[in-house]
Known about the structure:
Elements: E1 2-7, H1 10-20, E2 25-29, E3 33-40, E4 43-49, E5 55-59, E6 70-74, H2 75-78, H3 86-96, E7 102-106, H4 111-124, E8 133-135, H5 143-151, H6 158-190, H7 202-218, E9 223-231, E10 235-239, H8 247-257, E11 262-274, H9 282-293, H10 297-309, H11 329-336, H12 340-346, H13 380-395, E12 401-412, E13 415-426, E14 451-452, E15 454-463, H14 472-481, H15 490-499, E16 503-504, E17 510-511, H16 513-525, H17 527-530, H18 533-546, H19 552-572, H20 574-588, E18 590-593, E19 600-606, E20 611-616, E21 625-627, E22 633-638, E23 645-649, E24 654-657, H21 666-669, E25 673-677, E26 684-690, E27 693-698, E28 707-708, H22 713-717
Parallel strand pairs: 1-4, 1-7, 7-8
Antiparallel strand pairs: 2-3, 3-4, 5-6, 9-10, 9-15, 10-13, 11-12, 11-14, 12-13, 16-17, 18-19, 19-20, 20-21, 22-23, 23-24, 25-26, 26-27, 27-28
Helix pairs in contact: 1-5, 4-6, 6-18, 6-19, 6-20, 9-10, 9-14, 10-13, 16-20
This protein binds one DNA strand of 8 nucleotides through residues 8-10, 50-54, 56-57, 67, 75, 83-86, 89, 107-108, 112-113, 115-116, 164, 167-168, 171-180, 182-183, 193, 195-202, 305, 309, 317, 485-486, 488-489, 492-493, 496.
Keywords: DNA-binding, Isomerase, Magnesium, Metal-binding, Topoisomerase, Zinc, Zinc-finger
Active site: 315
Site (Interaction with DNA): 53, 167, 171, 317, 500
Amino acid sequence: MHEVIVxxxxxxxxxxxxxxxxxxxxxxxxxxVKYWELKKGSKDITVVSAVGHLYSLTPDNPKDKVYFDLHWxxxxxxxxxxxxxxxxxxxxxxxxxRNADSYIHACDYDTEGTLIGYNALKYACGQExxxxxxxxxxxxxxxxxxxxxxxNRIELDMNQVDTGIAxxxxxxxxxxxxxxxxxxxxxxxxxxxxxxxxxxxxxxxLSILVEREKEIKDFVPEPYWLIKAVxxxxxxxxxxxxKIFDRDRxxxxxxxxxxxxxxxxxxxxxxxxxxxPVPFNLGGLQSEAYNVFGFSPKKTQTIAQNLYTSGxxxxxxxxxxxxxxxxxxxxxxxxxxxxxxxKKHIDQLPSKLKPNNGKKDDAAHPAIHPTGxxxxxxxxxxxxxxxxxxxxxxSVFFEAAKFETMxxxxxxxxxxxxxxxxxxxxxxxxxxxxxRKIDDEIFPDIKEDDLMKVLELISDEKExxxxxxxxxxxxxxxxxxxxxxTKATRADIxxxxxxxxxxxxxxxxxxxxxxxxxxxxxxxxxxNLTSEELTRDLQIKLDGISNNxxxxxEIIDEGEKxxxxxxxxxxxxSNEIGSKLYESYQESNIIGTCPTCxxxxxxxxxxxxxxxxxxxxxxxxxxTSYSIPKGTNxxxxxxxxxxxxxxxxxxxxxxxxxxxxxxxxxxxxxxxxEVGKCPNCGKPLLKRSGRYGxxxxxxxxxxxxxxxxxxxxxxxxK
DNA sequence: GCAAGGTC
Length: 718
C-alpha cells in the first residue's frame, strides 16, 4: 500500500514525517525538493510538500476586456516573476504523488491551507474526485498533535474549499477588473499609461492614510502655555496645570511668581514594576526592528525568512506571542550558551523557565524564537535581527524591572509646581535586553519645607499639534487592529502603495495627490472598496458558505453583479476619472518651476535610456530639461543662486543644485579641451565637466572607459 | 501592466 501525504511547506512535511516515524528518510528530488519516505505498518508513505499556493487564478481568455471567466493554472506560469521556485515542487508532487492507494491532505487547518492542499491534490496528484483523500486536522506541529490527527483523520470539508475558492475569485473580480478599468480611463482620456491598482486590502489601507492627511489639514492649532521654573540644583519644575490655554491665567502666574522663592510642599515616593516584553510575533518583530534599527517591515520580514530557512530562528509568519513549554527551552539555552555574549545573560536565568507570554495566539506556530543553532557569517543587518530575536527570547524569562519614583510639589506664592524622578532599583529583564533605555535618574537631596531659590521662570508658548502621520510600523499595527490583510501580506501591501506612487516618505508616510485622488474617485464609484466594508462583507459571505447558508456559485455570481455595476459607472465617467487621475499623478511629480517658461518642472521617465530626468511640463513648447543621477531625491530646499530645487543623490548622500552647471561659467564647460592622448587606446584625452567637477576622459568613450582626475593626469601620461 | 494570499 502506498500513501501520499501532502503538506503546506517543507518544514511541516519534515515534522509530520518524523512524528509518524522517527526513522523517516529524507530524500531530495531533482537536487532541490526535499521529501520524506517512511514505513508505518503495512504502508509505504511518501510525505511531499507544497510551498504555499502552487496554483493561481488566471483568465480563460486574456484578451477579454473584463475577467469573469477564470481557471487555476500553475503559479509559475501566471506570475513568472517571484513564483519560479514553485515549479520544482509541482514537478516533484506530480512525479512522487501519482497512482497512490490513498492520499492525505495535511496542510494548515485554515481556509488558505485547505485550498493549497486541494489544488495540489487535484491538479498535481490528479485526485479530481477525492475518493482516496482524507484530511489531517491539527493545530500545532507537535508529535502528539500530529499523531492524533493522523489516527483520527476526517473527511475533506468541501465548504472550506469553496470558501477559499470564493475568496480568491472575488478578490480577483474586484481587484483586477477595477484596476484595469481605472488604467483604461487614463489611457482613453490622456493616451498615457499609468500603472494603477485597487483592491480589497490596499485601497482601505490607502484610505486610512488619506483620512489622516485630512485630519492634519483640517487641524486648527490652539496656542497654550507651559510654565516652568528652574530651581536650585538645576531642577526643572512644571506648573501643576500643565497646558494652560488661557493667556491671562498664564500671565497671572508669571507676575505672581516672578522673583519669588519656592518652598518644598510635599514629597512622596512610590514603587512600580515593568514586566518583561512578550515574545515576538511577526508584527511585533517588524515594529521593534523599525523602532530600534529603522528597518522597513518588508526588510525585517525578508531577513526573518532567511534566518528561518537557514535554521537559526523559527517560522516568522506567526501571530503568536506565546512560547509553549513543549519547546524545550533548556536545550535552546544550552546551545545559545556556546556564544560568550549570550552566555553572560543565560547564566543568570531563573531556574524555573516561565516566559511572559502575550495574549495573541496562532493555531499553527509559536512565537518567533531562536532554534539554538548559532549562525556564522551573517551580514550586518541579518545579525542585528538575529540578536534582536535572541535577546527578546532571553529577556521574556526574566523577572520584572523595579522602579522607585519620587514626586515633589513645590509652592511659589501659592502656585503649585511639581517634578518627578524615576530610578531603577532592580533592573530585572532590562539588563538582558539591550534595546531599551533604562530610566535611572538621580533623586535630588531635598526635604519638605526646604526653601529653594528660583533661578529662572519660563513661560513657553506652544501650539497643539495635529495627529502624527503614520510610519510603516505604526501602519502595520493599525492594519492588524482593523484586521486588514494578513501577517504575511501587510508589508507587501505597504510596498505596493509606494510602488504605485500613491504615497511617499519614509519616516512619516505622506499621501501624494495621486493617492488622494484615487480615494476621492473610488469613494464616489465604489464606496465599499475604500472603506473596510468589502472585507467585512466578504467575511460574512464566506461564513455563509462555511455553514451551508449559501453556495460558492451564489456568492461569486453576486460579486460579478456588484463589480459589473461599478465598472459601468466607471466607464460612463471614464473621461473625467482618467483626466483627474492623470493630472493628480502629474501634480505629484512637480518638483519646481521652469526657469525658462515659468511652467512646472516634472520628474519624467525615459523608456529609451531607462532613466529618470526632469523636464518642463510644457514640452514640446518648452524643452528645458535636466539629467539626474540614479536614486535622486528632491528636497524642499531650493538653490540660493537660481531657485531650482536642491537634490540629494549617491552613496554617501550628497547635495547639489538640480542644475549641475549652476554657478559655473557655461561657455567654458561645454567645450571639452584636448589635453593629451589616451594611454589605453591612443585617442585624444579630453578635459570634461561633470556633476562632480572637472575630470579627464577618453574621446573614445563609451568604447574606452579611461578616466582620471585632473591632478592624476600627469602621472598617468608618463 | 491588474488583487490577495500562501511560500522559498
